[in-house]
């Protein structure tokens, strides 16, 4: 009896699609593809030495992350940077759902949930000691995972999905990329913007945002729903206050 072997093309196709997605995503985040820039599917396929199919698949995934937009008859373009008003709206939205999620997570916490929180905090600590670029990216990724985890531990798929769809940390990371460009160009005011970003995470003192995460985590793991809610709200408000001046500086061209 002949033994059937699974086709080899499927995993190879999956790997190719994932690699293409990762490369295009990086190009959008580091502004190799600039905010608002039209995206040529054929051009990307030639540049990455792939067919148009994995490029189209990658762009569809990036559209779901709000990193690219698709317009009828015009194709894809990289998403524009958030405006100040959009940034405020985003944080106001988070200020409504995330404190509730933190309280619910505290009410529903289990030993498994506590371990998942501890594991994520341990992962976040790896950013300490990295250089500023790597540290910022590592903290941004930890930031996203931590907030997603708290939303998940609330037990509400609706709230988790609502948070994930904001893609807040991807948008904020793109702002940091603008900062790096400014610094390289030595434009007037670039040092001011750099100081504002350093204020956001305060890497020299152990990352301010990470310390706030630890406080929220302690409250959730202890079952303190009111404390968890208040700490989460304070964390989100602090984040907005730290980022809003940066947005103003960037948009005013200082």
Structure description:
The protein is mainly α. Helices cover 72% and strands 4% of the residues. It has eleven helices and three strands; from the N terminus they run αβααββαααααααα. The protein has helices at 9-29, 41-48, 52-64, 84-108, 111-125, 132-153, 157-164, 168-185, 190-201, 208-221, 225-252, and strands at residues 38-39, 68-71, 75-78. A hairpin with a 3-residue loop joins strand 2 and strand 3. It is globular. The N and C termini lie far apart (75 Å). Mean pLDDT is 81; it is low at 1-11.
Quick overview:
This protein is mainly α and 254 residues long.
Key words describing this protein structure:
mainly alpha; three-stranded antiparallel beta sheet; 11 helices; globular; disordered N terminus
Percent of residues in helical segments?
A: over 70%
Mean pLDDT: 81
Task: Please tell me what the overall shape is.
Answer: globular
Residue fraction in strands: under 5%
Number of helices: 11
User: Which strand order does the major sheet show?
Assistant: 1-3-2
Radius of gyration: 20 Å
Instruction: Give the N-terminus to C-terminus distance in angstroms.
Output: 75 Å
Q: What is the chain-wise order of helices and strands?
A: HEHHEEHHHHHHHH
SS class: mainly alpha
Report low-confidence residues grouped into runs of 5 or more. 1-11
Largest sheet, in brief, is:
3 strands, antiparallel
Number of strands: 3
